[in-house]
Design goal:
This protein is α+β, with helices and mostly antiparallel strands. It contains three helices and ten strands. It has two domains: 174 residues, no CATH class; 55 residues. Strands 1, 2, 3, 4, 5, 6, 7, 8, 9 and 10 form a ten-stranded mixed sheet that branches.
């Protein structure tokens, strides 16, 4: 599975002629300028997948930052998708009852979050020579899994770019492999165990502190009684 990003003008909300909470975006465009991986996307690359989503009755999800692992980051969904001369477009709506949907909507609406990315598999591709003689890899048929609102893409000079690797497990435009996810989960569990042990020790220390204080109070009381007896 691969990921690509694009910097686009996002329309969102009533100011752009949409209903509150709705948006119109182009997760991918048909520019013939190769991206940082030497890819161009052919017009028609999304048509079969758009039809497949419609026939399945399922809804293409909109995420924040490709966070497959946390339902809180499933912030939106597609109402309609299609292709035009510019690219693959998605009209959708934010989940305003989700934990993060309203926040992401405000970021998009205020133009603080203006980039899109999508996760996909390549079903058909091939070498192509562009009009200026540049050779590229043309993506001709794609299977899409989600689209995401992202803070920044890796390459600001092209309209369809690859997401910058945020960890060693993300390479060549691919998402984390299963073995890397397992490693991260193991590390997370180990960190959790250390934190839990530290909290237990802290609780024990706190519980022991009052006992020491009571002993000190008893010693002080014995001393006071001794002084009174001597008097």
């Amino acid at each position: 599975m691969r990921i690509k990003s694009t910097k686009v003008l996002v329309k969102a909300g009533v100011e752009d002629g949409l209903e509150e909470g709705q948006f119109l975006v182009y997760p991918s465009t048909f520019t013939r300028e190769p991206d940082s991986y030497g890819d161009v996307v052919a017009k028609g690359a999304f048509l079969d997948d758009i039809k497949a989503w419609a026939e399945s009755g399922n809804v293409l999800p909109g995420l924040f930052g490709h966070r497959f692992d946390d339902p809180d980051y499933y912030v939106a969904s597609a109402i309609e998708q299609g292709e035009d001369d510019h690219g693959w477009f998605v009209k959708g709506e934010f989940d305003m009852e989700s934990p993060k949907g309203p926040h992401v909507y405000r970021l998009v609406k205020s133009k603080r979050l203006t980039q899109l990315s999508f996760a996909f598999d390549v079903l058909e591709e091939g070498a192509v020579e562009l009009e200026d003689g540049t050779k590229a890899n043309e993506l001709r048929k794609l299977k899409v899994y989600e689209f995401s609102f992202v803070p920044i893409g890796a390459n600001q000079d092209t309209s369809v770019v690859a997401v910058k690797a945020l960890a060693d497990g993300i390479k060549a435009g691919r998402v984390l492999a299963a073995k890397h996810i397992d490693s991260l989960r193991s590390a997370q569990e180990a960190i959790g165990a250390v934190i839990a042990a530290a909290e237990v020790e802290d609780d024990q220390a706190k519980a022991a502190k009052p006992v020491t204080s009571l002993a000190e109070m008893a010693d002080a009381l014995d001393l006071e009684l001794e002084l009174e007896a001597s008097a």
